[in-house]
Sequence to fold (190 residues):
Amino acid sequence: MAQKTVALFLAPGCEEIEALTVVDILYRAGIPCHTISVAEGREVTSSHKITIVADKHVGEVELDSYDMLVLPGGIPGTPNLHACDKLMDAVRSFAKAGRPLSAICAAPSIFAKEGLLQGRRATSNPGFQAVLAEHGATVLANEPVVVDKNFITSQGMGTAIDFALEIVRHYQGDEGVEDMKPKIVYWDRA
Fold:
């Protein structure tokens, strides 16, 4: 892949808004993103029984060729992502190399359980913030999105747009985010 391409992982029971919001906004920003299934095939049924057809299956791709890995949440999507050995090997490798990793809702708990958030600032769905804290993260419970070096974490479906915009910021800076806001009719409610 000549361009930097994002890999977004879909597991059975994923939260579809958290996943597809990222895909949609990256598409609008011109940032290549592949959806990658960790299910048996490319079809993945979300936590709300919506079937999504992924671009690729995890067995078909070399995860090291991607620039960023994105993990949406959902239950049982999050434990299903954590159960994918190939994905977890890539997550650990990316973390060790300081490469970008992003997760939303329950999925930041995967990074915590893997020992990757020790001493880092992070957030997650309120129901999983204790897991982050137990594994050494500094939890910013009132922040919708937290960036700490190569990690981007976010709280859930209601913060999915902010999460996706932070990924845009990673690639295109503040200018890219400000350019995207009117395209998606985003309201800054300060």
Notes: The chain has a mean pLDDT of 96. The CA atoms of residues 58 and 178 lie 33 Å apart. The helical segments are 16-29, 77-82, 85-97, 108-113, 129-134, 160-183. The longest strand covers residues 6-10.
